[in-house]
Amino acid sequence: MPLANPIEPDGEAPYCLVLTIVPGDEQARTLAREIVDARLGACVQIDSIQSIYRWEGQMCSEPECRLMIKTRKACFAALAQFIRAHHPYEVPEIVQIAVTAGSADYLRWIDEGTQSGDDPLR
C-alpha cells in the first residue's frame, strides 16, 4: 500500500486529527455520531481516560472520554464550531494535530468521509 506525503506547496498538511474531551460514554457516542453524520469527520475514536487538572483553583480528577476525530484541515473551522455548539464544557478542548504522512488509500477514505456530493472541495 503506497504511502502519501500530503503536504501542500504552502507547507500545510491537508489532513488532521482533532481531539476533544467529554465527561462520559453516552455524550462521547452521541457527539461522535453527530460529527460523522455531519461529515465533519470520517471517523471518531473514543477512549476512556482519567484526567487530572486544575479548574477554578481546585484540583480535579475525573473519568472522561477522549474523541479523536480524523478529518481534513478544510473542515476544522466548521468542526470546532460544531463541537463548541454541542459540548457540555464551558471551555472544551479543541486541538488540531497535523497529519503529515499516511496511507494514500486511507487519506482518500478521509476525503470521501468528509465531503458531500456538493462539496466544492471535492
Structure in words:
The chain is an alpha+beta fold. The protein has one domain (3-113): Alpha-Beta Plaits, CATH 3.30.70.120. It is 28% helix and 37% strand. It has 3 helices and 6 strands, in the order ββαββαββα. A 4-stranded antiparallel β-sheet has the order 3-4-2-5. A two-stranded antiparallel sheet has the order 1-6. Strand 3 (43-55) and strand 4 (58-72) form a beta hairpin. The two termini are 23 Å apart.
What is the overall number of helices? 3
Largest sheet: 4 strands, antiparallel
Number of strands: 6
| Element string (H = helix, E = strand) | EEHEEHEEH
CATH fold assignment: Alpha-Beta Plaits
What is the level-2 CATH architecture name? 2-Layer Sandwich
Beta content comes to: 35-45%
> Mean pLDDT, as a whole number?
89
* Count of distinct structural domains: 1
Distance between the termini: 23 Å
Q: Structural class, judged by helices and strands?
A: alpha+beta
The stretches of 5 or more residues where confidence is low (pLDDT under 50) are 118-122
The CATH C-level class name: Alpha Beta
Estimate the global geometry from the Cα principal axes. elongated
